[in-house]
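Session log. Operator J.P. requested a structure for one protein chain; no other inputs attached. Running the standard single-chain path with token output.
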Amino acid sequence: MFTMVEAVGQKIAWPASKCVDLEPVTEAVDITPLSQRATSINKCKLLDLSSDDVVVAEGRWQTEEPKALVNGLPLGPKAVKVFIDQVHQPETFIWRPTRLHPDLQASHFIGVSTNRFL
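Structure written below.
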């Protein structure tokens, strides 16, 4: 997967600085959602990798644990694991693409850099 459209319903990595937390919580939960509804806690918006003004997707952050796996790879430092609920910019490339998950459309969970997390 290479674009946001392919990431809907997937976990992907995203720079934490480009992921904006919409509902601050006291404790992070690192679990797979039971459904793809966006009504749970930990809602966030993902910012474009090249601009702080463009929201490319919305989802729910799962963890900042560097050892957490995203598409079989460790999340790493300064990143957030995010479950993608809705994509606004389907052609946006994901931060750490893999052969099977090149974009947001093809991913359920992604890793996000901490500077792209709202």
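Operator note: Residues 26-31 have pLDDT under 50 and may be disordered.
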